[in-house]
Amino acid sequence: MIKPKVVAAGLCFLSRRLDAVLSPLRPARPARVDINLTWRCNLRCRHCFLRYQDHRELGAEDWKKILRSLKSHLGAFPVCLSGGEPLLHKDFFEIARFCDEIGLITILSTNGTLIDSSVAGRLAESNIDIVSVSLESAREEVQDRVRGKGSWQKIMDAVALLKEKLPVQLSTVVMGCNIGELCSLADFAEKNRVHISFQGFYCAPDQLQGSSLSEHELWPREKEAVAGEFDRLIALKAKTRAVSNSVKQLKLLREYYLFPQRLPVPKKKCRAFLRAFELDPEGKMQFCSYGGPVGDLARQSLRQVWASPAVSRTVKAMVSCPKDCSYLNCRYEEGIGDYLHKLLAFLAT
């Protein structure tokens, strides 16, 4: 049976797309909100582009106020609770329950290492709709090398606990250390009745220190292996529902790794602001990790921020941005059919 808030979120997405078509001269409302509850994390992953910052963290009452404001302006929308590691926030479960109470589709993005039977039960009781767990390899030695010793076993235990209670999606960043096992990871997801999403590897500019992304130690350098594995994954996509990425995006990722200096499609105007915006632990709002804050929802309503010159300037800058990040999941534009199919597949599980 389809949940009522799935229908509400689907209608919300359709209204955003219609808003974007009919109102090209003003910023259209995004379809999703990503809330980084904390920058704290219990892991120090080799590929993570975030660096811990000692920020003030808003508590449950502050987030409830913000979420009410968002709901009044956006209607029903999916909200992703992320970080850092969001389960480290002292009020995580209170915030998650409130999201459900006001009819939001709630996604948890977690490294999975803090999930035991008690936490899994509390997540189910909070009506979390999707749990996205980071998994870079089905091999223990590779996973532990990337995320830290003991992380693989903790994640395996978490997936086993969660899949009996909630829809689960694995999130995998494609790197040199796992380029040969993308199909194995997809098979693992299929056998465990969960979904998997493959992400493009990237770093913040300050982490590259003037070098190119393809010179990074984690970049896959064997082009024949890259081409072969993506070809096999694209063929496998036709046989399994476990892979969330569309064939179009998988082909785009393939070319991105083969030719990192250019993408195989003409440069399109960045429309990431139509997909989502994110909030930091203090409630500051931004559209892109490469850009700065455009407002502070702890002190302003979304309507005030939306009408501000900062939003207009940022949207114009994004539209003319010379970077092409269309391979990234935060940037890749799914069609309406892709979006609804994915949403229904997750929440009707």
State the order of secondary-structure elements, H for helix, E for strand. Answer: HEHEHEHEHHEHEHHHEEEHHH
The CATH class of the domain at 4-166 and 270-347, by name, is Alpha Beta
How many β-strand stretches?
9
**Estimated helix fraction:** 40-55%
CATH second-level architecture of the domain at 4-166 and 270-347: Alpha-Beta Barrel
Strand order of the largest sheet: 6-5-4-3-2-1-7-8-9
Derived from helix and strand composition plus strand pairing, the structural class reads alpha/beta
The CATH homologous superfamily name of the domain at 4-166 and 270-347 equals Aldolase class I
Number of helices: 13
Mean pLDDT: 84
* Terminal residue distance: 9 Å
Low-pLDDT stretches: 16-27
Q: Major beta sheet, specifics?
A: 9 strands, mixed
Proportion of residues in β-strands: 5-15%
CATH fold topology of the domain at 4-166 and 270-347: TIM Barrel
Radius of gyration: 19 Å
- The dominant shape is globular
Q: Can you walk through the features of this model?
A:
With 349 residues, the protein is α/β, with parallel strands linked by helices. It has a domain at 4-166 and 270-347: Aldolase class I (TIM Barrel, Alpha-Beta Barrel), CATH 3.20.20. 41% of the residues lie in helices and 12% in strands. It has helices spanning 4-22, 60-74, 92-101, 117-125, 140-147, 151-162, 182-191, 205-208, 223-237, 247-258, 302-306, 309-319, 336-347, and strands at residues 32-36, 78-82, 105-110, 130-134, 168-173, 195-199, 276-279, 284-286, 295-296. It has a nine-stranded mixed beta sheet. The chain is globular. 36% of the residues are buried.
